[in-house]
Amino acid sequence: MEHNRRVQDATGRTKGSIEFKFCNVSHVLAEAGHDYVEGYKPRSHVQESLRRSVLEAIGMPRTTSDSSWLPQSKKVGEQQVSSATRGEPDRAEVSEEVLTPDLYDLLGDLWDRATGGTDVAARPDQAENQNWPSAMRPAGVAEACQWFDPERPHNGVPRLLFLVGGPGAGKSHATASVVVGLHQVTHHDDGLAHRVYRYSGSIADVLIINDATIGAAGNSVTPLAGEVDAVAALGSDRPVHLMACVNRGILVEEGTAITKAGHAARDSAGAAVLRWLEADSGTAGGSDGGLLWWLQDRRDEGFVRSATLMEADRIRAYVAGVYVDECSLFEPRPSVHFEQYKVESATTYGVTRLNDRSQMDHRSIPAHDLFAQMSKRFSDMASGFAADPLLANLSSISNSALRANILTIARSAELTYGLRFTYRELWGLLARVLVGDAPQRMNREYLRSFIEDHQPDGIDPQRDFARWRTLAAFRTHQAIFTASTEAGREGAAHDPVLRMMRHADPVRDALPGNNPKDPYSGWVDPVNEALTSHHTETSPLEVLLQHDGSGLFEAAVGAFDEGLDKAYRVVMGLDDLPEKDRREAASWYGSYLMRLYAVAHGITAFRKEISVLLDAIFSAPSLPDRLAPGLHTLIRPQRSSRSSSDESFLPLYDSRAEPIRGSLDTPKLATTMDGLALATERVGGEQVILVLKRNGRDMGRIALDFPLVREALSCVDGFPGVTDLVESTAPRLERVRAVHLRSQTLAAANTEIRLVAGQGGNLVTVKG
After folding, report:
1. Residue 164: enclosing H or E segment and its boundaries?
2. How is the beta sheet containing 753-758 ordered, strand by strand?
3. Of 219, 215, 403, 243, residue with least CA distance to 321
4. What's the DSSP call for residue 716?
5. Which residue in 166, 327, 414, 572 has the fewest CB atoms around it within 10 Å?
6. Cα–Cα distance, 726 to 729 (Å, whole number)
7. In angstroms, rounded to a whole number, what is the distance separating the alpha carbons of residues 200 and 531?
8. pTM confidence score
């Protein structure tokens, strides 16, 4: 293990990649008649460059074409080389045995990174893996790191930089970039991540809190606040700059502990900074608040903040905080400009409507930038298989429009699920796009042999079609939404990417229609019409290609999909195929084509609801016309949708705040929910709050999110709708209705109380 870690530091490769390479080395040594490396059994499919390096290292330099030195029983790929070059003397003698390892080894490295490999999380003292591109950092991080740069001139005042957010957002990678070239004072030889790393520069020292969730020495309940206190007290000609990776839970925990500790603990540098990081701008102390430590010159741009830490009237530190998960990686990245001591300006973080995403500048979108770089990394890869879904996947991300549409669907999954992708999930999505659900089904070294073992041989049509289906599970449009095997489905419960993406599976919400561009219209008719063609005479895939005039579907279809379509037509043409198997095959292939067509056009499940949610963001404080009637019906439904009256009654003494609907056999006292006005309030970049007012008085607030929008759009003609999200929306709706049952609300002069029975309700006069 220790040797592996040293090789990781020296080469930047992953643990799994190094293990695989040593097995390749063993294979070359065995070919040459030597003992192989202990603990690493030989694995074939060796890259020629590695073979040449090993042979040179043991004093046996050879070229690819000269294998005469090999024992006769161990000549690798001899038959393939001779058959490939027969009649072509000017062609390089390179077999598929040499070509394929590059692709499969690199894909294996990718899923090591995306599924918990050693280089998923970074340490400041860990060399960056040069095999992979450097993605754009989250909004504000690169600029804040430049501002923090320990080698920048200072005036004796320390700089404090806090990267706030959950795991996987790139915080540790940012700290590693900051300390490049500095002298490491503390060394950790156990290969584990630690809380504190100390560095020394030419004009200042640096304290890195790489993970504030790791406990500090001394069992302090407020270690981060204590570390800020120590740095703020050291201002001198050689200050100590502090950079900390913090999640919001730490801010809450330490803030609670500081509050419990009393006034002395609350009036400290660390307490002031933590309050400022946790709270909204403008709430973190002040010179007139009776506190010695406070922050001035506060600047808040939502995803980035800056301030000056003061002790009375003395400057003790310059502070910046970047909230790394405030901005979606699928939206244009806002920029920020730091002056010498603070944030000077920043562009506004905004969201994009679904039908506007094709016009975006993809160069400014972090996720698209990463996918584009990876596309170049995998360009010119080859495979020797007739049916290879992985090459089809590589072709998909090589097309800019298809990349953009895949990422549009991922952005829709964010809005549907209510969480944002971090870089960790983004790498996981990239792995699913390229290798499907293989990481859940096998170890990386079996990928090539698995695809080889499932190649169709043209002997048995039913067996061939089953093999095509097995390989089709790796195709991008299948894998990003669903796990195709029982084991895969069980593993999906623990896969954060699949948990989010399956909500966007277009098969869940395939509405009739013929307009793939309009998010408010249906789109699935062309697929259904293609599937109704006679299977043995007409290709469903060809019918769909002829129908689609945009070129998007044509770009998404590759040789693998054409081979699958042919196998489907052959098996459906069998006279002795059982009807049950025929229906099952048609159902499976229909879903396959539906997803392929939808992904090519960037169509997500519930795209109407997502579009209305985005409309609400842009139209605040007004409600979109498509949304307002449904929200009124959900919050205060009429007692009878057929009644000319607009009255809505809420029972006073029921266990739940559910409005009365229909006729009542037992009389109930109820209050009216009249004069209720709805408006919206935009909070941050993409969060919207629904505000309920009655006669100008605030009657409650509720987050306007995807579940609430979907429930509202399911209402028809005044009848409340019900979806599978009712468990999420019902408690929140009850809480805002319950405001009408508060004593101060009931005591208002204009509140009516009715005795509701049967189909009517009589006004009740209450005498005090």
Report:
1. strand 159-164
2. 649-651, 664-672, 753-758, 760-764
3. 243
4. B
5. 166
6. 5
7. 67
8. 0.81
Residues near 379 by beta carbon (within 8 Å), at least 6 away in sequence:
398
* CA 344 to the chain's CA centroid: 30
Alpha-carbon distance 704 to 690, whole Å? Answer: 6
The H or E element that residue 393 is part of is helix 389-398
As a whole number of angstroms, the distance between CA 365 and CA 350 comes to 12
Q: What pLDDT was estimated at residue 766?
A: 64
Give whichever of 279-283, 730-734, 739-743 has the largest mean pLDDT: 730-734
Neighbours of 2 (CB within 10 A): 9
- Angle among Cα 734, 739, 745 to the nearest 5 degrees reads 150
* Residue reference for tokens 């080469």: 11
The DSSP element (H or E) to which 647 belongs, if any, is none
Cα–Cα nearest to 326, from 353, 299, 294, 349: 349
| Residue 74 phi, psi dihedral angles, 5° rounding | -120, 20
Token readout for 205 is 């020292």
Q: Find the helix or strand (DSSP H, E) in which 340 lies.
A: none
Per residue in 124-143, pLDDT (tens digit) is 877 666 667 778 899 999 99
- Residue 706's H or E segment, with its range, is helix 706-713
- Radius of gyration over alpha carbons of the chain, in Å? 31
Question: For 127-195, where are the alpha helices, taking DSSP H only?
Answer: 141-148, 171-178
How many residues are given for the chain?
Answer: 768
Q: How far apart are CA 245 and CA 276, in angstroms?
A: 16
**Helix, strand, coil content of the chain in percent (nearest 5):** 45, 15, 40
